[in-house]
Write a structure and sequence with these properties.
By secondary structure, the chain is an all-alpha fold. It has 4 helices and no strands. It has a domain at 9-38. Helix 1 (9-22) packs across helix 2 (26-38). The longest helix has 14 residues, at 9-22. The radius of gyration is 28 Å and the shape is elongated. It starts with 8 loop residues before the first helix and ends with a helix.
């Protein structure tokens, strides 16, 4: 099928260069690129690995995990280190 499409000059030059290096026509290069762009993406169906968990009582008292500044300060001050020993 013959049709007209407007693409940038640089994109056309890139397609023309690819065609020259691969021995294809510019139309074939554009068709290949369009096929690749329209190909359905494979869904990764691999099972999610479970992460190891360890016993404990959770977050130490006074630690706010949503506040990185206070968390950093607590780590710098050594807060809760006695509970970990």
């Amino acid at each position: 099928m013959r049709t007209t499409v407007n693409i940038s000059e640089q994109l056309y030059r890139n397609a023309k260069a690819r065609a020259a290096t691969t021995g294809q026509t510019v139309s074939e290069v554009i068709e290949d690129a369009l096929r690749e762009a329209l190909r359905p993406k494979a869904v990764d169906s691999a099972p999610v690995a479970s992460l190891p968990t360890f016993g404990g009582s959770g977050v130490l008292a006074g630690i706010d995990l949503s506040n990185s500044g206070s968390l950093r300060d607590a780590m710098d001050d050594g807060a809760g280190l006695d509970a970990l020993r």
